[in-house]
């Protein structure tokens, strides 16, 4: 695609701040959702701080050549819950999630060392376009249900945790966001074309605020989309509840048996995330027109992801991973500037200390973020399909490989082994690799085959 800002380009300072804020909005919902789901007093602001630190670590390892943000990883939610469940106290559980991140990071380091000496050709042969393309699509499609679910929900919930807003009201807010993003991206001029998410979210938020005010004035809960009550008791400045501070209180209760339990919960998941790491970077490579597995190299992206994940868990408790939402933002806006990612990381660190800003971001209703995510996840899915446009699907060997990955991924095939779960993305990828090897699938695309025939 045609990039407005390439990797090494540096937008003007004012524009940079706006672009960074847009990236932050794109990754925000998922990043703060993980600590919310895990519970046990985990801090959203600390997770945001950890994501910023983890991203800076990643950028350093990749020599500022890979424009992607690292946020809280959903893949490790089960592992984190297992760490808390097996601990004698909440404090010990915090120590456990940090130890777990260390184990997961160690897996990445070991794989990175292997890749450094063995190269990446074996990965390209194991996962050619016919395998990695539909797998990238599954990353987007597997999140489609989340986007649509959010599209029908507000932020105000009842005692049962259900949205009180009418799904039709929420849908209106989400669609306003969605079509604002689309119109700005397609027909916008200059700056509007570069910040469609900010404009879209603000438009959706305004509509949601109007419905909410009317709902409060009339006593009609079906119109209450935004929860303004969270602003009461808000502090202007507050230091996030860093995980390592709580973990230090529980270290004395950690023994060898518990550490082994944590390792078993984290290490297998790290191998699953490794597969998704490759898919994300293949996708990003197709967006920016540069093979990141070659430059800066898969070993560097793995080290950045692994060590960045440990850094994120040390501060925020959540292991980090490269975000598809960030890749989607780069694809839609055409802004691949690494400086923008760095500014986003710094911004996420700074705002984690400011109560009003974190609170405002947390009030953005699900339906508004759902409207944004429809475009983000959709672009991920389409990016994967673009990878296979040169694959000869007239050859049944390739056709079956793509079919297996798409159906198993969209169908939601998952496998659980104790506390370890292979996600639909991981299952689809593994089955695709096996099918491609069994069928002797070709890793040449149609253009390469045509060139070979003409040479003969």
Characteristic terms for this protein:
mainly alpha; 456 residues; 70% helix; 20 helices; 4 strands; two-stranded antiparallel sheet
User: In percent, how helical is the residue content?
Assistant: 55-70%
3D shape: globular
Q: Count the strands?
A: 4
Order of helices and strands: HHEHHHHHHHHHHHEHHHHHEEHH
Strand content: under 5%
Mean of residue pLDDT?
Answer: 88
**Rounded Rg:** 22 Å
Give an overview in words:
With 456 residues, this protein is mainly α. Helices cover 70% and strands 3% of the residues. It has helices at residues 13-38, 44-61, 77-85, 90-118, 121-126, 129-141, 144-151, 167-187, 191-194, 196-218, 243-250, 256-288, 293-316, 324-333, 338-351, 355-363, 366-387, 396-410, 424-439, 446-455; strands at residues 70-72, 320-322, 415-417, 420-422. The protein has a two-stranded antiparallel sheet with strand order 1-2. Strand 3 (415-417) and strand 4 form a beta hairpin. Helix 2 packs antiparallel against helix 13 (293-316) and helix 6 (129-141) runs antiparallel to helix 19. The longest helix is centred in the middle third of the chain and has 33 residues, at 256-288. The radius of gyration is 22 Å and the shape is globular. The two termini are 33 Å apart. The relative contact order is 0.22. The model has no long low-confidence stretch (mean pLDDT 88).
Task: Furnish the topology, listing elements before pairings.
Elements: H1 13-38, H2 44-61, E1 70-72, H3 77-85, H4 90-118, H5 121-126, H6 129-141, H7 144-151, H8 167-187, H9 191-194, H10 196-218, H11 243-250, H12 256-288, H13 293-316, E2 320-322, H14 324-333, H15 338-351, H16 355-363, H17 366-387, H18 396-410, E3 415-417, E4 420-422, H19 424-439, H20 446-455
Antiparallel strand pairs: 1-2, 3-4
Helix pairs in contact: 1-2, 1-15, 2-13, 2-15, 3-4, 3-12, 4-11, 4-12, 4-13, 6-12, 6-17, 6-18, 6-19, 7-17, 8-10, 8-17, 10-17, 12-13, 12-14, 14-17, 18-19
């Amino acid at each position: 695609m045609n990039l407005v800002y390439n990797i090494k380009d540096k937008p003007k300072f004012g524009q940079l701040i706006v672009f960074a804020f847009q990236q932050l909005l794109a990754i925000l919902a998922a990043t703060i959702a993980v600590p919310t789901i895990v519970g046990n007093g985990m801090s959203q602001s600390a997770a945001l701080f950890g994501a910023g630190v983890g991203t800076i670590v990643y950028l350093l390892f990749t020599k500022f050549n890979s424009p992607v943000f690292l946020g809280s990883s959903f893949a490790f939610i089960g592992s984190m819950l297992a760490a808390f469940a097996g601990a004698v106290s909440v404090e010990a559980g915090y120590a456990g999630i940090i130890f777990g991140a260390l184990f997961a990071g160690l897996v990445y380091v070991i794989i990175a060392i292997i890749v450094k000496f063995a190269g990446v050709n074996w990965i390209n042969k194991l996962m050619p376009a016919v395998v990695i393309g539909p797998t990238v699509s599954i990353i987007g499609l597997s999140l489609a249900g989340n986007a649509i679910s959010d599209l029908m929900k507000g932020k105000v919930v009842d005692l049962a945790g259900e949205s009180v807003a009418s799904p039709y009201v929420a849908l209106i807010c989400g669609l306003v966001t969605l079509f604002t993003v689309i119109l700005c991206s397609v027909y916008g001029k200059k700056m509007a074309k570069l910040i469609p998410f900010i404009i879209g979210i603000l438009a959706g938020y305004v509509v949601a605020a109007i419905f909410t005010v009317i709902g409060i004035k009339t006593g009609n809960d079906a119109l209450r989309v935004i929860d303004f009550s969270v602003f009461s008791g808000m502090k202007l400045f507050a230091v996030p509840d860093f995980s390592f501070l709580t973990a230090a209180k529980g270290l004395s209760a950690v023994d060898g048996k518990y550490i082994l339990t944590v390792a078993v919960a984290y290490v297998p998941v790290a191998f699953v995330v490794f597969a998704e790491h490759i898919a994300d970077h293949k996708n990003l490579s197709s967006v920016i027109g540069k093979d990141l597995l070659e430059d800066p190299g898969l070993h560097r992206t793995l080290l950045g992801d692994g060590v960045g994940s440990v850094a994120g868990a040390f501060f925020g408790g959540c292991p980090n991973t490269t975000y598809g939402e960030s890749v989607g933002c780069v694809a839609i806006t055409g802004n691949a500037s690494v400086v923008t990612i760095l500014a986003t990381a710094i911004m996420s660190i700074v705002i984690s200390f400011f109560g009003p800003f974190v609170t405002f971001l947390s009030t953005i209703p699900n339906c508004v973020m759902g409207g944004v995510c429809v475009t983000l996840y959709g672009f991920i899915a389409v990016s994967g399909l673009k990878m296979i446009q040169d694959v000869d699907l007239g050859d049944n060997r390739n056709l079956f490989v793509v079919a297996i990955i798409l159906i198993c991924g969209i169908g939601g095939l998952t496998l659980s082994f104790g506390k370890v779960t292979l996600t639909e993305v991981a299952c689809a990828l593994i089955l695709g690799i096996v099918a491609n090897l069994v069928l002797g699938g070709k890793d040449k695309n149609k253009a390469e085959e045509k060139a070979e025939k003409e040479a003969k």
